[in-house]
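Exercise 7. Given the encoded structure of a 340-residue chain, write a plausible sequence.
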């Protein structure tokens, strides 16, 4: 990529194309780095994030942290053998210790130097660990909304790497035209997409696209919430079972035109605001239904993967009259990229 291409992509992210070697820039927002259960106290993980490594660890008091990967002493990678000792992250090379605020607080021999680890702003919600990203380094301008049921955590999850942009994956939700063709799913728009700053809401009625001779169709009303280009949550009430299910599709850019996709599911009782109050049989039902929801979602995603991994990004798509939702989404998505 030439400097001219990079400047063109930065000025107009919607005009970047794959064929010429240009890429959409990384969008701002909250992006998932790990599930909470992966981050037990004392654990150290390395994840790719916006083309770079990021090191995650959880101190003994249970608090998660995310730092830039290299020790400021002599550049050792803290995720390649680094350890957590009490509240400190310890470098594997010379055992320099860093406090939760990033300050170097100890060395094996002598006083610590004036060294500091750079931290990422993180947030833990619903069993996911998110990091904030902004191209200019500005602090978080908004938060991911919580669920109506407190204490809901992902019960089942699946992930994969996708060779496309996070924007392409989440835009797929507003592409109603492909649902009956690719997934054999009938769709009816109940509440059209509505934007509110970094959030986008809509409500769809989905069901199997069966032949007309089948009189009874199982239709379900799904409420969709997008928070930036890395977070999609689908809420599905199931009154006959007394349940409400949550499905997350969370997308994290790992490199240019590379995205880690995490899909997860959970359930809660409709009438109870806290999941901790559910009985053992109900919790078993929650878990079983969450796994069933996840299997259904993943089966549909496998159909999309063939498209995502081979398609190109169209910066100026020739939209049909029924593609109004995609046009609205493209306009909404511009706020997450650097300004022209």
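Solution.
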């Amino acid at each position: 990529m030439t400097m001219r291409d990079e400047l063109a992509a930065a000025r107009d992210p919607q005009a970047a194309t794959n064929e010429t070697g240009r890429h959409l820039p990384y969008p701002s927002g909250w992006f998932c780095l790990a599930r909470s259960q992966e981050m037990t106290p004392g654990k150290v993980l390395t994840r790719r994030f916006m083309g770079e490594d990021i090191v995650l660890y959880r101190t003994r008091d249970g608090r998660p942290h995310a730092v830039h990967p290299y020790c400021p002493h002599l550049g050792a990678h803290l995720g390649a053998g680094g350890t957590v000792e009490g509240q400190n992250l310890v470098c594997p090379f010379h055992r320099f210790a860093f406090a939760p605020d990033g300050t170097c607080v100890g060395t094996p021999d002598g006083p610590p130097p004036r060294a500091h680890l750079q931290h990422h702003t993180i947030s833990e919600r619903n069993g996911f660990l998110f990091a904030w990203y902004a191209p200019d380094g500005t602090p978080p301008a908004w938060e991911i909304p919580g669920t109506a049921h407190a204490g809901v955590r992902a019960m089942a999850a699946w992930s994969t790497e996708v060779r496309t942009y996070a924007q392409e994956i989440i835009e797929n939700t507003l592409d109603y035209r492909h649902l009956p063709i690719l997934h054999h799913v009938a769709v009816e728009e109940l509440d059209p997409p509505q934007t509110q700053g970094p959030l986008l809401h809509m409500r769809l009625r989905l069901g199997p696209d069966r032949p007309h001779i089948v009189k009874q169709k199982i239709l379900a009303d799904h409420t969709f919430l997008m928070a930036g280009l890395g977070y999609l949550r689908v809420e599905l009430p199931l009154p006959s079972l007394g349940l409400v299910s949550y499905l997350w599709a969370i997308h994290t850019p790992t490199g240019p035109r590379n995205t880690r996709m995490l899909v997860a599911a959970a359930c809660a009782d409709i009438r109870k605001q806290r999941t901790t109050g559910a009985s053992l049989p109900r919790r078993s039902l929650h878990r079983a239904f969450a796994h069933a929801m996840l299997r259904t979602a993943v089966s549909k995603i496998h159909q999309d993967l063939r498209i995502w991994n081979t398609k190109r990004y169209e910066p100026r798509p020739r939209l049909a009259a029924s593609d109004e939702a995609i046009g609205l989404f493209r306009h909404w998505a511009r706020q997450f990229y650097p300004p022209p």
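Remark. The helical segments are 3-11, 166-171, 178-183, 280-308, 324-333. Students should compare their own answers with the one above.
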